[in-house]
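#structure-requests
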Amino acid sequence: MPPPGLLGSGLWMSRAMSWCVLEPRPPGKRWLVAGLGNPGLPGTRHSVGIAVLGQLARRLGVAESWARDRRCAADLALALLGDAQVVLLRPRRLMNANGRSVARAAELFGLTAEEVYLVHDELDKPLGKLALKLGGSARGHNGVRSCISCLNSSAMPRLRVGIGRPTHPDAVQAHVLGCFSPAEQELLPPLLERATDLLLDHIRERSQGRPMLGI
């Protein structure tokens, strides 16, 4: 039998998630952070959102706690940040269908679009640049477009991680789906650290009821 509280929530997670008790929380005390990308293609520019999520999981002490959830076709890890709950999500669907996993997880955890963070690559920013955008259009990003469609909202805050845009338009697809060069890989560790700091600081501020601001 599952521990008390898990049955009451209707969200009994596996032992791999350390019997995390998902009791009802006040609004603003539970957040979902989704790293957008293509499963099975780690190390590519298009999946840099998944790399950020890996660093976030390490910082929160749940790097060994990922568990597959078939209901939303994703890997989930649950963490605490102060008195707030943070749900980390890595979709197991392709980028163009990431939104189906994100929307299903939001439904399971009782979250609104405003409580869902998307972390994804951004062609129009150079590698090393970060921006936290509050809602708006997909700006041509298929993963974000999928999330907007499936959540029926464009209100999700988004951490955009710059990967740079190639000079020739015909090279965009190869650039996005390609792996970071050796020189770029040297820039990744501090970039992932800064991205993690930005996310955690923003979530802490919102958990304390402070206004949501873009960066």
